[in-house]
Amino acid sequence: MPRVLLTGFEPFGDEADNPSWDAVRLLEGARIAGHRVATRCLAVEFGRSLRQLRAAIRETAPALVLCVGLAGGRAQLSLERIGINVDDARIPDNAGRQPIDVPVVEGGPDAYFSTLPLKAMLHALRAAGIPAEVSQTAGTYVCNHVLYGLMHALRRQRRVRGGFIHVPYSPAQATAHPGAASLPTATVAEGLRVALRAALTTTDDLRLAAGATH
Amino acid sequence: MPRVLLTGFEPFGDEADNPSWDAVRLLEGARIAGHRVATRCLAVEFGRSLRQLRAAIRETAPALVLCVGLAGGRAQLSLERIGINVDDARIPDNAGRQPIDVPVVEGGPDAYFSTLPLKAMLHALRAAGIPAEVSQTAGTYVCNHVLYGLMHALRRQRRVRGGFIHVPYSPAQATAHPGAASLPTATVAEGLRVALRAALTTTDDLRLAAGATH
Amino acid sequence: MPRVLLTGFEPFGDEADNPSWDAVRLLEGARIAGHRVATRCLAVEFGRSLRQLRAAIRETAPALVLCVGLAGGRAQLSLERIGINVDDARIPDNAGRQPIDVPVVEGGPDAYFSTLPLKAMLHALRAAGIPAEVSQTAGTYVCNHVLYGLMHALRRQRRVRGGFIHVPYSPAQATAHPGAASLPTATVAEGLRVALRAALTTTDDLRLAAGATH
Amino acid sequence: MPRVLLTGFEPFGDEADNPSWDAVRLLEGARIAGHRVATRCLAVEFGRSLRQLRAAIRETAPALVLCVGLAGGRAQLSLERIGINVDDARIPDNAGRQPIDVPVVEGGPDAYFSTLPLKAMLHALRAAGIPAEVSQTAGTYVCNHVLYGLMHALRRQRRVRGGFIHVPYSPAQATAHPGAASLPTATVAEGLRVALRAALTTTDDLRLAAGATH
User: Fold this and answer.
1) Does B179 sit within 8 Å of A133, measured CB to CB?
2) How far apart are the C-alpha atoms of A103 and A41, rounded to whole Å?
3) Among candidates A30, A43, A120, A122, which has minimal Cα distance to A77?
4) Distance separating alpha carbons of residues B26 and A138, to the nearest angstrom
5) CA distance C182 to C180
6) Is C133 labeled as catalytic in the residue annotation?
7) Strand, helix or coil at D103?
8) Per residue in B137-159, is it b (16+ CB within 10 Å) or e — as a string?
9) Is residue A13 scored above 90 in pLDDT?
10) Alpha carbons A18 and A7: distance in angstroms, whole number
11) Per the CB < 8 Å rule, is C129 touching D183?
């Protein structure tokens, strides 16, 4: 059966858990639209995360790669449109490194669009009652690093599509962040399943406005 | 068995559902800390909502009253500290009335504090992994109207405690509000159960900072 | 000439300046609608701030009292509707005290509405191109303490009106708070002048919706 | 004297003014760091705005191009890091067109980084007391369209640097948007002057973290 590679991240910063991995692990081995899901947990480290991702791509030879990360403070599943070729870290990564304005890939293009059908995924998520939005930036930390590096790795394999989804805090995490939004792990996992199914069954993306005026 | 009266609201504005009632109804008949829960759904109408609430208090003779309403846009369960003696409606209520700067109770005091042990409830919610906060304002619409009217109705029955909790959008509702926070009905209902248990088992409230600098 | 008492606050927390006093001091001695403005700078201390305010009221015998404080993070001039009888401090005051759930005035009523014509002030500010809103909570820190204490002090002098306006960070302060809103001191001072003129020339407040649904 | 080209935009959407042009026009003819400022007002139209911009570049042969646009709701001057090759309009432009997921330049690269020294500009703005931040997205509307098109036009003229700054509402505009941040035109114009001076006098950008974790 063809495979989907689905990755989450280990905890970072002051957090004891990372809801991206907590949700992703629930889908290990799941069958979605005729594909088997393989999961991996990536380090929150510049460089090492990408080496892990590339190794996982070699091991699983997936038809589609979806990486998932935490966006503490965002309220909805964020379908990332683009990864950009810069690391600019406000806080050190889990190995203590804090690159500032360094390219992800020396000499690489400035950015890569995700090749997932974002609008079809957005439509499917909303139809399933799961709040989602298209995001125009994945930031400049390890999540963007992984998205850019993923699309760079896939640049010559145009049949393998790739992209990134940011997820909110878990409710338990949000108890330490007054006023912060959250979604339960079960809701996020269901959202990932819905998004993957839409991605795997969509050839031509929908035409659905989901931009930002700024 | 002594009773708890728990109320939600019917839908209002552009919303087809009201997650306050969707969560409250799940607790109909539940037994919490030696009390039986009776539930009611209130109209989103100035005046009528309070007549319904007072009738429900007479019918159920509760030991504690907790009213629950929707605060679309808030991300956590909001334990309301105070109801104020003013109706100032930005949108008409479900009967088409839009009072502006009219007292809830002519000649009543300017405000009533909730008599629930908010800090103990906050502590219990967070310990249970459910994001919550104390709120210093319930607004000036029907929710505040009901909170003020509840505390006015209870002003001579100091053994019957009362208060109000605002809850976020449901995930399905949030799909129509890009960027808006939400919590599933099951999470909210579990939060109400935890909050009620804390309220029913706490005599002297905790001393726990949960104020706002502004 | 009858007088207006206008107060600001000294700096607190991590801030080196307090834009409330920076704006207020610009109006010292100003003549507005036939009144002379007297200004005072209050301590950011529970208790002492109110003793200073009561002394200033005795000294100036004002026709109207307007207290002004910083609400770092708010974007517009906030006309406060009500002060509530509780101190609940998230951070210590400038004397190191951090009261939690203590009344401002032991045995006082739960709250006092401002007696200023908020809607007329709001209308005048907007007409003058100065962004403003009515706020339903002044928090539970020293600003609310002063508003509640002011209205308590004036409770038997119904001819002397009183209220509170919260102002945003200054632009210079906002440089240390990424993403935070700000308004220049000159804009705030002009807003206070406009608000005072409206308050002094309005007998019956306007009927203008400015409430909150929650 | 070498020239700087500085552009603003005409009003769009429901707004009667555009603070980007209101601020930019104040700098017409100004001399900054040995350069003369030439200003232009661009149409809020996909396509036409870029034709106007390219014509202005031909006419003025500038050493540096800075385009400025409104980001209603943002609170600080936003130094845009990157323009991306997509138009995805949530609202029609001033000519009634609403492209969805169309490239700005057919066959162009996915994105172009600004070539301005953003961190030096950020540092200079903060030192001058003007709130500013680096932004990782200029959206997908006409502002991003112009930024992408500008960098595409300059791609073979590496000595001509270019970039984009988003500015907040004016205070007068914010009176129609309760809770929205704003900055006066004079503050914005002063910020543009400070930013241009920093850009014109900086060869190697500062190393200063200003990224986003997501």
Assistant:
1) yes
2) 24
3) A122
4) 38
5) 7
6) no
7) coil
8) bbbbbbbbbbbbbbbbbbeeeee
9) no
10) 12
11) no
Q: Token digits for A55?
A: 């190794």
Q: Going from the N-terminus, what domains does chain A have, and what CATH number goes with each?
A: 3-201 (3.40.630.20)
d(CA B87, CA B99) in angstroms, rounded, equals 6
Mean pLDDT of all residues in D22-50:
98
Distance from C-alpha of D92 to C-alpha of C49, rounded to nearest angstrom: 53
| Per-residue CA distances from C35 to A142, C2, C5, C122 (Å) | 60, 5, 10, 20
Q: What is the pLDDT of residue B210?
A: 94
A15: left (phi over 0), alpha (psi -120 to 50) or beta: beta
Return the closest-CA partner of residue D151 out of D24, D53, D28.
D53
Best probe of the C interface among B97, B110, B122, by most C CBs < 10 A, is B110
Place of tokens 């081995």: A29
Q: Considering the candidates A35, A45, A67, A80, report the single residue annotated as catalytic.
A: A80
SS3 state of residue A185: helix
Give the predicted TM-score (pTM) of the model: 0.97
With an 8 Å Cβ cutoff, is B125 touching chain A? yes
What is the distance of C-alpha A1 from the center of its chain?
23
For chain D, the residue count is 214
Q: Which residues of D are catalytic?
A: 80, 143, 166
CB-based contacts of C186, cutoff 8 Å, min separation 6? C26
Contacts of A180 in chain B (CB under 8 A): 75-76, 131
Measured between CA atoms, the residue of chain A closest to residue D70 is A214
Over residues B43-78, the pLDDT tens digits come to 999 999 999 999 999 999 999 999 999 999 999 999
Phi, psi (5° rounding) for residue D158? -65, -15
Cα gap C92→B209, rounded to integer Å: 11
Q: What's the pLDDT at B62?
A: 98
Contacts of B65 (CB under 8 A, 6+ apart): B4, B5, B6, B7, B53, B57, B150, B154, B160, B161, B162, B163
Q: Does B100 touch chain C (CB under 8 A)?
A: yes
What ipTM is given for this predicted complex? 0.96
Q: What does the pLDDT read at residue B175? A: 97
Average pLDDT over residues D75-93: 97
Residue D63 sits at the chain C interface (C-beta within 8 Å): no
Report the residue from D129, D133, D174 with minimal CB separation from C131.
Answer: D174
Q: Please tell me which of the candidates B133, B179, B187 has its beta carbon nearest to residue A179.
A: B133
Helices (H), C61-165: 118-127, 142-153
Strand ordering across the sheet containing C77-80: C31-32, C35-42, C3-9, C64-70, C161-167, C77-80, C132-135
Give, for B91, the enclosing helix (H) or strand (E): none
* C123 contacts chain B (CB < 8 A): no
pLDDT for residue B120 is more than 90: yes
Cα radius of gyration rounded to whole Å, chain B = 16
A112 touches chain D (CB under 8 A): yes
Chains touching chain D, criterion 3+ CB pairs below 8 Å? A, C
Q: What is the pLDDT along chain C (214 residues), one digit of tens a residue?
A: 999 999 999 999 888 899 999 999 999 999 999 999 999 999 999 999 999 999 999 999 999 999 999 999 999 999 999 999 999 999 999 999 999 999 999 999 999 999 999 999 999 999 999 999 999 999 999 999 999 999 999 999 989 999 999 999 999 999 999 999 999 999 999 999 999 999 999 989 999 999 999 9
d(CA C153, CA B19): 43
- D86 part of contact set with chain A, CB < 8 Å: yes
User: Which one, of D49, D61, D19, D51, lies nearest residue D192 by Cα?
Assistant: D19
The partner residues of D78 in beta bridges, in order of sequence, read: D133, D166
Residues of A in contact with D13 (CB under 8 A): 213
Give the distance from residue A111's alpha carbon to the nearest chain D alpha carbon, in angstroms.
5
